[in-house]
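Tutorial handout. Part one gives the primary structure; part two gives the three-dimensional structure as tokens.
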Amino acid sequence: MRGTKVGHKSTSKNFNKSRDRKIAFTKGVRHMDEKRIQEITKALEIIQKRSPLSSTRAAQLLQEMKTMDKGEVEQLCSALIEAATKDPKAKIPSEELKILIEIENTLGARTQILKFRVSPTEKNQIEADARREMGESGDDNKGKPNVSEYLRKKILGK
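Part two.
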């Protein structure tokens, strides 16, 4: 019989499935360092708790994280952070927003942090402060001040 091993009842097809499962397991989150796993888990828990729009996706990613590839987990987490920060119904306190921004920085993503939920006069004041503090180097490609970067620095205190 082709595909059988002497003394084993498994065929090569079943043997390959077992090997593939082992490869998938070693490719997964196990190759992330413990600190990175904790950061991503913390971010997903914040999103699950605070953002009604992204909470189900965050819960699903928390469950499936152990079987996924490291890059895929980081990419999905980054997308969820972006969706949660732009969610108009999300009530994220500044301390948790600071955590999300720090995690976002470690993931290497740069999302637009703020969808303005303030009055037009407050928005103009924030833009003026951003332009004054960051100067011309803080302008985005449209010539407006990069308010997201200004707020990121202000929240992180850097």
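Part three, for discussion. Confidence is low (pLDDT under 50) at residues 8-27. The two ends are 68 Å apart (CA to CA).
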